[in-house]
Specification:
Chain lengths: 299, 52
């Protein structure tokens, strides 16, 4: 866990140091040669803006790579999994499994990769251009892109919940007394995607509590940690951008602080897309385990 | 979409440099012309749509 935090926080900390140095240079230049204030602002926005995009684009690239790998993996594994589960009738009676789920999971991941990630990159660029020439803003377009993506993510997560509730006999039984305050805390304090995180927690919780006797609690926990680690990575990066915006606001150019804030907001949306992929990984892994268990039991 | 976005980045970059060259007061006067350039570019996006 500490390795993950160190890996995530390294680039934003370096970025913050760079922002401090560039802002100090810009402030000194503004004081010494005030007639070149416009040029100083432009150079600051171009240099700091280009540096600021680095960790954010890295997070998007990681997401894009993950989706590409998952799409190929799912295409390979789902026909085998579907055929195996249909052949082993015990699996169907065990979890009231619906074959349409595979199509839905694959579709959700493909939509994430083909549409959501490019739109998110467009949102980054439009936010940057709005800060570069404030008189010609694209802020509403990028906000619209974010809202549209959040809507699509909420629909997909709601569909996941529907599939589990409609087809599964799973019940959330473990630790609800602990989970409810935690969910309320997340919903209120994680901007934009807090409710998605709690919804996903609920759905995964329903599933995993039913699966734990079959697959084993440790395995379920390991699967959860593995599938959710990209989400945690993006969430931490988003919070770090928000922190950089807050810390640099008193001394840096206001457009720069605003840009970091916007990048943070967009990364929270990326976190929502990550949740869809995380859920797909978890779901596929659990179904594979069930199939293997059923075949082993039958054999 | 990427070509269009790259073109927009170039256009906005040129406008930002032009704005810095003109200075705050002159930029105010030239802003309608700059917005017109962006309008024409956005119309170009609409012409890219199928059926237009």
């Amino acid at each position: 866990m500490w390795e993950l935090i160190a890996a995530v926080s390294g680039p934003p900390i370096r970025l913050f140091v760079l922002i401090v140095v560039l802002s100090a240079a810009a402030l000194a230049a503004d004081f010494l040669v005030p007639q070149f204030r416009e040029w100083t602002r432009l150079f600051l926005l171009v240099s700091a803006g280009a540096a600021a995009m680095g960790p954010a684009i890295d997070a998007v690239r990681m997401m894009d790579g993950l989706i590409g790998k998952m799409t190929v993996l799912f295409l390979g594994i789902y026909p085998v999994l579907a055929a195996g589960m249909a052949a082993a009738g015990g699996a169907l009676s065990l979890i009231n499994w619906n074959p349409a789920v595979f199509l839905f999971v694959q579709g959700a991941v493909v939509i994430g990769g083909k549409w959501m990630v490019p739109l998110l990159i467009a949102s980054f660029i439009l936010d940057y251009l709005s800060r570069l020439v404030p008189e010609i803003p694209f802020a509403r377009i990028s906000e619209m892109i974010r809202v549209t993506l959040l809507g699509a993510i909420s629909v997909i997560i709601a569909c996941y919940s529907l599939f589990i509730t409609a087809t599964g006999a799973m019940a959330w039984s473990s630790g609800s007394a602990l989970a409810e305050p935690l969910k309320a805390l997340l919903r209120q304090h994680v901007p934009l995607v807090g409710s998605f995180i709690t919804d996903t927690m609920g759905v995964v919780g329903k599933y995993s509590s039913g699966m734990a006797p079959i697959a084993g609690s440790y395995l379920i926990v390991a699967l959860l940690v593995t599938s959710l680690s990209p989400v945690i990575y993006v969430l931490l990066t988003a919070f770090l951008y928000k922190w950089i915006a807050a810390l640099s606001e008193p001394f840096a150019h206001e457009d720069l602080a605003g840009l970091f804030d916007d990048i943070g907001k967009t990364l929270f949306v990326l976190c929502g897309i990550m949740l869809i992929v995380a859920f797909a990984i978890f779901y596929t892994a659990v179904l594979s385990i069930v199939l293997i268990k059923v075949i082993a039991g039958a054999g | 979409m990427w070509e269009w976005l790259a073109g927009l980045v170039w256009l906005m970059g040129i406008l930002a440099v032009l704005g810095a060259v003109l200075g705050a007061d002159e930029r105010e006067n030239f802003m309608p012309l700059m917005k017109l350039a962006v309008l024409i570019y956005i119309l170009g996006l609409i012409s890219l749509l199928p059926g237009s």
